[in-house]
Amino acid sequence: MSVIHVNNVSKHFGALKAVDGLSFEVQEGQVFGFLGQNGSGKSTTIRMLLSLIHPTSGNIEIFGHSIQDNRNEVLEEIGAIIERPDLYPYLSAKEHLQLFAKLRSKKIKPNAIEDTLRKVGLLDRSKDKVQTFSLGMKQRLGIGIALLHNPSLIILDEPTNGLDPQGISDIRNLIQYLAKEEGKTILVSSHILSEIEQMASHILILHKGKKLADGPIQTMLDPNKMIVHLTTTNDEQALQVILAGSYSNYLLKRTEGIYLSLPHFEIPLLNQFLVNAGVGLISVESRNSLEDYFLQLTSNSN
Amino acid sequence: MKAIISFELYKIFRRPRTYIAFGAIAALIVVIQFGLKVDGQSYAAFLMKDINDTLTVDGKVLNGYLICYILLQLLLVHVPLLVALIAADMISGEANLGTLRLLFSTPFTRTQWVLGKFIAASIYTIVLLIWLAFLALFVSMWVFGTDDLFLMKSNYVVLIQEKDVLWRYVGAFVFASFSLLTVTALGFLMSSMANNSIGPIVGTMSAIVFFTILSTLNIPLFSIIKPYLFTTHMNNWKEFFDIQVNEDNEAIAGSILNIAKIKNSLLVLSAHIILFVTVAVYITKKKDILS
């Protein structure tokens, strides 16, 4: 079942096309990673999903209902944090949860507030005012508010911002728990690609407001195609040799270093080619991570 | 809607800034009451100096009712500025804090949020006015006692019997609530147009000062627009203390000299409230939440 269906959505701010003809679907139970550089349109898209920004054109359906026409019913089933964890500094963690619980028509269990505080690790600080909280604690409280009413869809925009390594790990485990054990559908954006790689089952890569790719993470990281980083005796000469020959098609545009995306059986042939051209190969470092895939896509589109 | 109002009221009354207005009003009233208690007779003698030769006044001129009238004259000009502190912050303050996106992604429409916030801000304004009434009227009555209300107008004097005064204050405070709600609505409108609190607060205060000056200037050009300015009508609570007289020039108890003026002022103020809030709803519904 499709939980989110975005159909040809655009958002223009004057001449700027923040999102341009974006379409994608998120299925029930997926952890959907939303990737893109700063200014790629991730937050604008997430804000459109939450009806905070009105699309210039296109349709957004969530749970089969148009967000424009059935806003309140749809938002009842969504929990979200958007960018920074902005909260009321003069209220405590517990007061935040108590107040936001009142804004839901769903009946919230009496112990839900305590359970949520425990889940996000703030039970012992529940009576402290938010102005005394670190950024990471505010982020955890923001996640707590998003989870309090037990939503079916959770939208998390940069949820690990400001968290220490333990906090990042806790959030990652929480997201995985919510998806696997509670069957939640989660859309998560992050600039930490390795995080998405560990959490997401599907990803969408957005660049300059346009979709570059989306799909299951396994199919995107094709094991037969590798990204290699070459270290040679003379990088400048090596680059010229590669650009002049048949390997130029495999070359990735990077500001530093020589990177190529090529089938693994080509690696020995590339070595031979460079040696024949008088370039000594010091090392070939192969990679097959989401970060490489992301950089490959975005650099090519530049 | 009830949930939004209770949510907003909780936040208003948990915020330290809210109590600045309560503290400021209490401090001003107590200082003036103290001054009049200590040296009030000199003040009363100064007020009466022009009519002492033609009129003999018995009883307690400087009583709680007169003190309240003096306080209202002084304070109802400044209270709108204190109201603006909260009202003009209601939407823009949330935008500045970044919490507006949290609120607008809950299952309530923006219209519900704006109306809920306006009602909460209005309740705050009314509570502030009740606080003012308590200190200015009831504390003055307790400290200075009660008697007939003797008022000096520009070219005549008004004497209202003691038993005929209290209901006029009730009317005056109800009228004042409309005046202050107009300021609340104006602050709200300004608030819907900005993403920080300072601009709307200063904007509201500036608008009040600007239109008050226009309302008081006797230039024929401005006379055309004066009847439509909310500032022209804000001080008409005083009309409750102008009384009709019979053929023998005796005051008619329970009467108001110009009740049509009060009704007209209430109509103009109500129209402003509706207009300001409607525009605030329209702006908030249309805007993208980028903060």
Can you describe this structure?
Chain A contains eleven helices and 14 strands. By secondary structure, chain A is an alpha/beta fold. Chain A has two domains: 213 residues, Rossmann fold (3-Layer(aba) Sandwich); 77 residues, 2-Layer Sandwich (Alpha-Beta Plaits), CATH 3.30.70. In chain A, the strands form three sheets. Chain A has a six-stranded mixed beta sheet, with helices on both faces. In chain A, strands 2-1-4-5 form a four-stranded antiparallel beta sheet, covered by helices on one side. The relative contact order of chain A is 0.14. The mean pLDDT of chain A is 84. In chain B, a hairpin with a 4-residue loop joins strand 1 and strand 2. The chains are: A alpha/beta (302), B mainly alpha (291). At the A-B interface, helix 2 and helix 3 of A face helix 1 of B.
What's the CATH H-level superfamily name of the largest domain in chain A?
Answer: P-loop containing nucleotide triphosphate hydrolases
The mean pLDDT of chain B is 89
What is the number of beta strands of chain B?
2
Q: Classify the oligomer.
A: heterodimer
| SSE order of chain B | HHHHHHHEEHHHHH
Secondary-structure content class of chain B: mainly alpha
Low-confidence stretches of chain A: none
Count of helical regions of chain A = 11
Largest sheet of chain A: 6 strands, mixed
| Biggest chain pair interface | A-B, 29 and 24 residues
Percentage of β-strand residues of chain A: 25-35%
Q: How helical, in percent, are the residues of chain B?
A: 55-70%
Query: What sort of overall outline of chain B do the alpha carbons produce when their principal axes are compared?
Result: elongated
Radius of gyration of chain B: 21 Å
Helix content of chain A: 25-40%
